[in-house]
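Subgroup meeting minutes
Present: P.N., E.W., G.H.
Scribe: E.W.

1. P.N. recapped why we're keeping a running log of single-chain structure predictions: easier to compare across weeks, and new members can see raw inputs and outputs side by side.
2. G.H. added today's entry (231 aa).
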Amino acid sequence: MENLKILYTDKHITVCVKPPLLLSQQDAKGSPDMLKVLFEQTGIEHKPVHRLDFGVGGVMVYAKTDVAASKLSAAIQDKTFQKEYLAVTCGRPTENEGVYKDLLFKDSSKNKSFVVDKMRKGVKEASLEYRLLDTKEHEKLGVLSLVWVKLHTGRTHQIRVQFASRKTALYGDGKYGSRISDKRTALWSYALTFLHPVSRKPLSFCEIPDNCFPWELFDISTAENTTVLKG
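Output recorded in log:
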């Protein structure tokens, strides 16, 4: 496969772009994954600190040392590590912007999360904010919407299940209700903002998705100049 796009690297971390259809880290089957590709490309072993689903692409950071990994993981836990996404939904959110708060239960046997109505064992609170950037009417697929999302929590399949529960499943996400099922889910890790784990320097990285369907329906280069995407 082609080399990964590296946005930043030093002796502590590497910030790179994960392509869809590549695992974030190793699985039991020994499938190709980001750690293997990074090692082949750089000759350096990296450590995962966060994940993206198999069908999702975008900006990720990997640690090169245990210290960097520990500090980045702590930043994710204390919510000083900010994650922003772009998504294409089937249908249009009811409001142009808002906050989604839900209780999510992860069924590990099905590798699927569900919105539930009360707290119980295995249930966690989930929160995100979103803003509608654009909508398009597709002659075969109906209304598709480009949405900016910022996570407040990091639950399994959180964005996918929270939008799907409101009848706006992500395009291609057959697992959560999209009538078009594609290995590539229309969800993209657009930006990461965090403090360098050693120098504590503020860092921010962003990358827009490749110009392929359904992203090509929207002028994301123009959307990138909006207040939301400039942060």
